[in-house]
Structure formats: structure tokens, C-alpha cells
Amino acid sequence: MNGVVLVILFAAVVVLSTATAFTRDPGRQALVFGGYGLVLGVIMLALQAPDVALSQITVGAAIVPLIVLLTVMKCNRILAQHRKDQHREGG
Amino acid sequence: MLDAVLAWLPYAVAGWVLLVGCVGIVVSNNYVHAVVCLAVVQSATYLLLLAIGWEPHATAPVFGDISTKARVVDPVVQAMTLTDVVVGATVTALLLALTVQLAKRHGTLDPDEVRSLESDQDDHG
Amino acid sequence: MTARLAGRLVLLAAGVAGVGALLVVGFGALPSFGDVQHGYGVRAVAASLAHRAANTVGSVTFDQRAFDTMGEELIMFAAATSAVMLLRRMRDEEEQQARHDYGGEDVFGALRLTGAAFLPITLLVGCYVIAHGHLSPGGGFQGGVVLATGMHLAYLAGDYRVLERLRPSSLLDIAESGAVAGFLAVGLIGMGLTGSFLDNWVPLGTFGDLLSAGTVPILNGLVGIEVGAALVLLVARFLDQALLIRQEGEDA
Asked: CB-based contact (8 Å) between A66 and chain B?
């Protein structure tokens, strides 16, 4: 029984890590990465590592996706502004 | 059958996560994407370390409610993983801060468009 | 596909094949998953119980491998400080005042109430997780993260000004550096009293009590302060960059 749960969780890790690597849009990638972090946390619980799971779930599923999203917001605005500046200089 | 698969599956998964993260970095066209892929690469070490420490019919290495003679999984690998999770997040944050600087100074996040470390924007830099 | 990308993919394929082969060889020599031989684990458990720490992971992190943890802490301190410096407001940037008033009416009443109600609870949980790190799963690293997340529930509740009052940057800077210095000081006192750096020098107490395991709870507390302060400062800088700071001439 325990073994089946572990196999399912490892399969989920494979799927979500692959999805994270191949999600091109960073904003969407942050959300997939958050899901991946959550599954990693659950697998850590299943492997009898509650200490690690506690930090993984708070860091991997909350803090890191949050700062990635904030970075994406900031960069998108910078790049939009940059394009507008270039357009003004060109025309 | 299940036990035979489980004997090597966690190592295979750790190897897969490492390699798929590397592939993600190489084909990336955006530094934010590459940084997140690097975080995926790093998570392979968590899987590997915890897989090495696990054993069946053992509980978590916390003797709060259980007998001190109970069998527990290896706490050493857990301690290594634990610090790495939090420290890794800060290093990811540092890389993202560098990414924001890059966008400000070069106006691009595409690794192929960044030619030199000098600022492209003299009026802004 | 450009020639450059094609060349890169060929290199990538070679690299992945090579590393993959090395991994297969390396993992082949590892004991299989679920093997019950854990030489270090058994010794770490014995050493932890000898120092009356109920949470073996906490004992390994802050007692047996405390020197390694100090290194990790310094990496974290350096990374967080550099990131905060990189994200500070530059000379050619201005802070947008209007966004300071974000909050209040922008947010649903229920969400505000939930955020406000959860804020003290999460802060309390964070402190509990830090304080019981040597007894139950938890400790400085996890508790610090919980504290930092809890602080930002105030932001979810939609009151940026409440958050600003909650996180006086200069105080957090001092707390962060002070905690790192405290970690070093605990180690140095240990060196003075016992002859080895970061050796356990505080009375060990009774197994399972809040005051037990010697230096472990002290170091847990210091790391909790450091992690909490560093993450709050970091997330705050990212929030400022994303929501407040504009480059000169940029539209609001």
C-alpha cells in the first residue's frame, strides 16, 4: 500500500518537474513550480521527513513562486517601457 | 514486482529531475525561466538524499511520542536537505534580483540578446 | 532553427548522455531504496539522545553539524544581503506614492478580516515552531519561514501601511546581523569553555523538556530570527520593486 503511494508520488514529481522545465512563460511557470514544490513536500512527508517537508512546503510552494511572480511583474514593466523608449527614439 | 521497481525508482526520478532541469536551462530564452529551472535541478539533491535515508517500517527521527528504541529513518541526510531548502531559496532570490538588474540595464531577458556585461543604456545607467 | 541553436542542442545531447551514463553507474553502486543499513544515522541518533534532544534532525543540524550549519547560515546571510542591495531604489528611480494607499477599499472585507485574523496566529505558530525545534519537527529554518510568510498575510489583507509598520527595515537589518553574530558568539563561548568551536556548553536539561538539548534551542532561536528577518526583507524588496518603484519617465 505504502509502495503504491510512493510510486504515484514519484510519478507526479517526474510529470511536474518536466512541466516546470518546459513551461516557457515564466508567470505560468511560477505556478507550475509551486505545484511541484507542494508535491515535493508531500513526498518528503511520505519519506518520513516532516522537518524537511515543513520548510519545503512553506518555501517551495509559497515564498519562491511569490518572488518569481513579483520578478515577472517587474521585468514585464521594465521591458514594456524599454520598447516604448526605443520606439520613440526610432520614430 | 512493486518492490523491485521501488528499489531503483527514486534514484531514476532524482536523475531525471536533474537532467530535465539542465535541459530547461539550455533551451531557455528567458533568464527568469532559467533561474526556476536551476531551482528544479537543485531539488534533485533533496530527492536523492532523502531516498538514501529512507527505510521501510521506520518512523520520522523525532522521539517526541515514540520509544527511544524505535527504528527511525536516517536523520543526517534530512538535516542536510533541510538547510539546503531554505538557503537555496535565498540564492534563487539573489539570482532573480540579478535578473531584475539585467532587465533594467539591457532591456532584455533573452540570454542570446545579452552581448556584454557593459550597460546598453547609457542614458539610464 | 539557427546553426547556433542546433550546435547548442548537439552539445546538450552529448552532455545529457554523459551525465546520464555517470548517474546510472553511480546509482548502481548505491544501496537500493529502502536499505536498512544507515551507519551515520544510527550514530547520529545515539549522539542526539546522549545530548537529550528529542528531534534528532535538530540535534544533527545545530549540535553535531553546527559548524556546517554556520556555513549555510553565512551563505544565506550573504545572498540575502546582496539581493536586498541589488533591489534597493536607484538614483534614477522614484517611488510611486499613490500605490502606498493601496488597500482598504480595494480588498473584500472577508479577505481583510481573514488576513487580519490569521496574522497573529501564524506569527504565534512561527514562534512555536522555532521554540520546539529540538522536541518536534520544526526549528529555526522552518519557523523563520513561517514568520516571514505570516508577516506577508498582512499584505494579502490589503494593508501595505500595516505591513510597513510591521517590518521596520532598520530593526530587521539589526536583528538579521545580530542573529548571525550571536551564532558566532555561541560557538566562541563553546570554544572558550570546552576547547572546541560550537561544542555544546549549556546544561543539557531533561529529555523532552522545553529547556533541553543544551545549545540547540538557542541556535534554533538565532537562526529563526535570521531566516525570518532575511526573508521578510527580501520579499519586501521584491514587493517594492514590483509595486512601488518606477524608473524615471516611466508611466504609472
From this structure: no
Q: Which amino acid is at B81?
A: T
Give the gap in angstroms from C-alpha A72 to the nearest C-alpha of chain C: 8
The C-alpha atoms of residue C241 and residue C79 are separated, in whole angstroms, by: 18
Q: Is the ipTM of this complex over 0.85?
A: yes
Model pLDDT for residues A25-58, shown as the tens digit of each residue: 988 999 999 999 999 999 999 998 898 998 899 8
By CA distance, what is B82's nearest residue in C? C141
Verify whether the Cβ–Cβ distance B83 to C69 is below 8 Å: yes
Cβ B86 vs Cβ A52: under 8 Å: no
Amino acid at C167: R
Instruction: Provide, as residue numbers in chain A, all residues whose Cβ is less than 8 Å from the Cβ of C149.
Output: 58, 62-63
Per the domain annotation, does C63 fall within a domain?
yes
What global pTM score does this model have?
0.87
A12–B contact, CB cutoff 8 A:
no
pLDDT tens for C32-50 read 888 878 888 888 888 888 8
Residues of B in contact with C23 (CB under 8 A): 11, 15, 18-19
Chain C residue nearest residue B66, CA to CA: C54
Which range of residues forms the domain containing residue C83? 38-247
Range of the domain at A24: 2-90
CB A64 within 8 A of CB A37: yes
C27 is a domain residue:
no
Cβ <8 Å between A81 and C241? no
Q: Which domains does chain B have, with CATH numbers?
A: 2-59+70-106 (1.10.287.3510)
Whether residue B85 and residue A49 make contact (CB cut-off 8 A), yes or no, is no
Nearest-Cα distance to chain B for C242, in Å, is 10
